[in-house]
Amino acid sequence: MTALLRCLVPLARSGPYGRAVTRVSATYRVAPGAVLTSAPDTAEDLAEVLVHETQHGKLAVLHDLLPLHRAAPEAVHRVAWRADPRPLAGVLQGTYAHLALADLWARAAAGRTGTPSARREARARRDSYLRQVAQALPILLESGELTPAGREFTQGMERHLADLGRLRDPSAAIGGTSPAGDVR
């Protein structure tokens, strides 16, 4: 994070017409290294926002350098983390960000410094993100809209998911039996 995050922009916790919102965060493709966010409730929530939004920035830069998909904006897909259907670009962005969050919480769950309660919460968050990513990867791989580089990138995410699943339960790896790999 220290190598990538250059600017943290505070946002108000109000939405349109002054309505209160629980949490707002964003990144802009034209401003890699900047994260916009309302004040999270806890340090853990701040870590999650920073990891999530930094992943969006990283993937946007990578896609600009090496296109990962030729997705039509009108093609939409259902994902576990949003109520509204997402274009393939949004599925790819969300999958990459949620995989990093699964990794973050897997590390927290495995840590020795947190309380038993904190480690339980980390395991629950990890498992939720693992399920979300496991549900989204087939959408990407079966879409036909990934470039060869995008397919390779997505297969790398699939391998990382399998590794995280093995850490969770060595007898049942989420994401199949792909060989070990890393997408960090």
Automatic annotation (TrEMBL):
> Region (Disordered): which ranges?
164-184
Task: Read off the InterPro entries from this record.
Answer: AKG_HExxH
Q: Which NCBIfam families match?
A: mod_HExxH
Protein's name in the database:
HEXXH motif domain-containing protein
What species does this protein belong to? Streptomyces triculaminicus
